[in-house]
From TrEMBL, chain A:
UniProt-listed CDD domains: TM_PBP2
Name of the protein described by the UniProt record: Amino acid ABC transporter membrane protein 2 (PAAT family)
Key words, A-Z: Amino-acid transport, Cell membrane, Membrane, Transmembrane, Transmembrane helix, Transport
Pfam family, one: BPD_transp_1
Localization: Cell inner membrane; Cell membrane
Membrane topology designation: Multi-pass membrane protein
Database matches in PROSITE patterns: ABC_TM1
Family annotation (SUPFAM superfamilies): MetI-like (SSF161098)
Organism in which the protein naturally occurs: Gemmobacter caeni
Domain (ABC transmembrane type-1) ranges: 18-199
Protein origin, superkingdom: Bacteria
Length: 217, 240
């Protein structure tokens, strides 16, 4: 159909970039989700007023563009703290907090959506706060929060393209490197897009599968 | 024995209970009637410590419910409560709804808990719905499941808070039958209800609540036949 200079080695190079994208995303979403659950529960338990400092802290990560967060965090670690921290670590750290900030809101919304009367019924059976959280609130809130969480995870995966500013060569950066060399931008971006799709699709389908499994109607 | 002594309770500026005194003996069935806002439902949630009280005390088998040292989770294992809204756990099957608390709170093994749950569910007529999810049950069935769920903890006391009020009229009967059955078996019960015929047939005593005060209490024949308090008379005339 058309000629291309793209070699098998270049495809491997792109796949390695995709691997980096998956790795950064997986680490950030995992840590970010755990922190998000913690922050979300704290916010619900403390109430709006007492959790104001935490809310403010998380709002910073939600409102400052990720690119700026990455550059500033990298500069802060290197120039101010004089720490030898790899770009990869900085990328995972910033993306984790960024994920946590959004996830905390999702978790809070999920917990708030569990009817107070249902929780009251659990407590009236003699369940402790922890048992209520574990056996009633957690499963119900998870079902409510899942679509938003899948959206967040996919968003973080795409946003992870920005970690190139801290010298992490992920999928998009790898593509740009090849574009510079091969001068076939449209074709390479098409392949790059296909890689992103291949990464996202299973996660989106997995979410759909869980939703279906959990609905009893 | 449940002893309620001079209990006061308010929600903000609103005084809901203004000095309630009531003693319910083991095996007794007491129904509480009265208009909405009379404080009758609040009293039930105070008895199992879901709501704090302002003053007075409530003793269940000698344990003061609102004392700082009282282990409420432990106390509640002995006091079943069923609400107007049946509050099924929607992610669990009927059987799991009933086995959850016995397993996690009492620490009973799975097989034994399932045997208890099955027995209770059969008792309320849901023996064929064990693996069904609550969303597939009618309101009356969900309410009976909630009763079985409370009974599975083998409580000595059962509190019923307008358990038929949210049901379609044709489903009320099946739930009242379940309550009657429990009463006949000797369960100690306090039932807040708007079902006057039920109150008359099942109760040992009927209490009439009016604006946070227990205006009158007595045998059903007396309350329904010869009410002493003018408010009781007016209330009964209005619901007839």
């Amino acid at each position: 159909m058309f000629d291309t200079a793209l070699s098998a080695a270049d495809l491997v190079f792109l796949a390695k970039g995709a691997g980096m994208t998956i790795l950064v995303t997986a680490i950030s979403v995992a840590i970010g989700t755990l922190l998000g659950i913690l922050f979300g529960v704290i916010r619900v338990q403390l109430g709006a007023t007492l959790s104001l400092p935490l809310t403010f802290f998380l709002d910073i990560f939600r409102s400052v563009p990720l690119l700026i967060q990455l550059v500033l965090a990298n500069a802060f670690m290197g120039m101010v703290l004089r720490l030898q921290i790899s770009g990869f670590t900085v990328a995972c750290g910033v993306l984790s907090l960024y994920t946590a900030a959004y996830c905390a809101e999702i978790v809070r919304g999920g917990i708030d959506a569990v009817p107070a009367t249902t929780r009251r019924a659990a407590r009236s059976l003699g369940m402790s706060w922890m048992q209520d959280m574990r056996y009633i609130v957690a499963p119900l809130a998870t079902r409510i929060a899942l679509p938003s969480w899948i959206g967040l995870a996919l968003g973080v995966m795409k946003d992870s393209a920005l970690v190139y500013v801290v010298q992490v060569t992920e999928l998009l950066k790898s593509t740009q490197i090849l574009i510079t060399r091969l001068q076939e931008p449209l074709f390479l971006l098409l392949i790059c897009g296909a890689f992103y799709f291949l990464i996202s699709f299973p996660l989106a389908r997995f979410g759909g599968y869980l939703e279906k499994r959990w609905s009893h109607d | 024995m449940i002893e309620i002594q001079n209990v006061h309770k308010s929600f903000g500026p609103l005084k809901v209970l203004k000095g309630i005194d009531l003693t319910v003996e083991k095996g007794e069935v007491v129904t509480v009637i009265g208009g909405s806002g009379s404080g009758k439902s609040t009293l039930l949630t105070c008895i199992n410590g879901l709501e704090p009280i302002d003053s007075g005390r409530i003793l269940v088998d000698g344990t003061e419910v609102h004392a700082r040292t009282t282990d409420l989770n432990r106390l509640r294992q002995n006091i079943g409560i069923v609400f107007q809204q049946w509050n099924a756990f929607p992610h669990l099957t009927v059987l799991e709804n009933v086995t959850l608390a016995p397993r996690k709170v009492l620490g009973i093994g799975k097989a034994e808990a399932e045997a208890i749950a099955e027995k209770q569910l059969r008792h309320v007529g849901l023996g064929d719905k064990l693996s069904t999810f609550p969303s597939r049950l009618s309101g009356g069935q969900q309410q009976r499941m909630a009763i079985a769920r409370a009974l599975a903890m083998s409580p000595d006391y059962m509190l019923f808070d307008e358990v038929t009020s949210a049901l379609d009229p044709q489903l009320v009967g099946e739930v009242l039958e379940t309550l009657k059955m429990l009463a006949e078996e000797g369960m100690t019960m306090i039932c807040v209800t708007h079902e006057m015929a039920f109150a008359r047939d099942v109760s040992d005593r009927v209490a009439y609540f009016h604006k946070g005060i227990m205006a009158e209490i007595g045998a059903p024949e007396q309350i329904f036949g010869d009410p002493q308090h003018p408010e009781t008379w007016a209330f009964l005339a209005s619901v007839r």
